[in-house]
Amino acid sequence: MRILFTCRPAYGHLFPLLPLANAARAAGHEVVFGTGEAFVPKVRELGFVTHRAGLGISEAEAEAKRRHGEDAGFVDLALTTFGELLPRSLLADLTPLLPDLRPGLVVYEMSDVGAGVAARRAGIPVVSVAIARSMPPEVLAIATERLRPLWGTLPADALFGDACVDSWPDSLRDPGTAAVPKVFRMRPTPYDPDVPLPPLPEDGFVYLTLGTVVFGATQVLRRAIHALARLGVDVLVALGPGDPSALGPVPENVRVAGFVPQAEVLAHAGLVVHHGGTGTVLGSLAAGLPQLVLPQGADQFANADSLSALGAAKSLAGDEITMPAIEAAARELLADPATRAVARGIAAEIAAMPAPEAVLDELVTWAS
């Protein structure tokens, strides 16, 4: 089968698709990608045929600001960006491409909803992949109205469509998938870039990352580095595509890297301090690690709230993110067996979920 995967040109949108895409390729299926121009060469480097499809997020955000003005509210800008500009541009690019590609299945990450519309119009089976928490109901209702003209007859969920792949374990199930008629449960499986493992401190170190999009939170990262350095343990910082020079001098017990093979790092860490991105949340839970979440944007606040309510993490947000507060919370988490026990319980749930290879077989059968 030829399978088309589509995603926004951003690491947090691409990486969640790669376990399924790699499983499909390993099984002998033909895998094709569609993504924004900035990520076409990056995906091709992974060995996939890739087509330019849709605007980049920054391009759409710039156009939304031009339409609404720089002082427009977050909701107006987000809905115009993700509910209008991005899906319309993707739909326009995919519509002439699909008759030539003739995929047997289209797989899109949940924010790339234009792919769902294009596939449904072309009569191609289509499934979304949940890469984040769903929108709050009041925001989803507005987004649904924005997307209604594209869908025509709305699916069960305006983002997830009528079928989705859900990687959240039972303890943290997203209520947004409850209305979707067909849900494929899949074990959250990390994709690690092909980069060397940096020299690691002794087991039990603190791993710090704010992901690949830090929402300009360089000051938060600096505060976290210097607060965690006071704990008397080593700290490994992963910057992804970030610039190490922006951090300034760091304490002796802090090591700074770019991209790291995160799953390997987590296997040796004792605590994860991070932004609350879904990939890092699920990867840390799969490793049975306590987490300190410092959310900066998007669904990170919802992830932080869900983890804290479950007892698997602590979180600090906004003005709470001070050096003394970070140090105190991290120190408590390192010493608290209860939080670690909750995380290990969820790790057992994750380990029992179906692997990407098994889910791929289900998807192919369903689409055939």
Description:
This protein has 14 helices and 13 strands. It has helices at about 10-15, 20-25, 40-45, 55-70, 75-100, 115-120, 135-150, 220-230, 260-265, 280-285, 300-310, 325-335, 335-350, 355-365, and strands at about 1-5, 30-35, 50, 105-110, 125-130, 165, 180-185, 205-210, 235-240, 255, 270-275, 290-295, 315.
Report the β-strand fraction as a percent range. 15-25%
Arithmetic mean pLDDT:
90
Strand numbers in spatial order across the main sheet: 3-2-1-4-5-6-7
Which value, in Å, is the CA radius of gyration?
Answer: 20 Å
* Percentage of residues assigned to helices: 40-55%
How do you describe this structure in short?
The chain is of the alpha/beta class and 368 residues long. It is 43% helix and 16% strand.
How would you summarize the topology of this molecule?
Blueprint (H helix, E strand, L loop, with lengths): L1 E6 L3 H4 L3 H9 L3 E6 L4 H6 L3 E4 L4 H12 L5 H28 L3 E5 L3 H9 L4 E4 L7 H15 L11 E4 L15 E4 L19 E5 L8 H11 L6 E4 L15 E4 L4 H5 L2 E6 L3 H9 L4 E3 L6 H11 L2 E3 L7 H13 L1 H15 L4 H12 L1
Parallel strand pairs: 1-2, 1-4, 2-3, 4-5, 5-6, 6-7, 8-9, 8-11, 9-10, 11-12, 12-13
Helix pairs in contact: 2-14, 4-5, 5-6, 5-7, 8-12
Please name the defining characteristics of this protein:
368 residues; alpha/beta; 14 helices
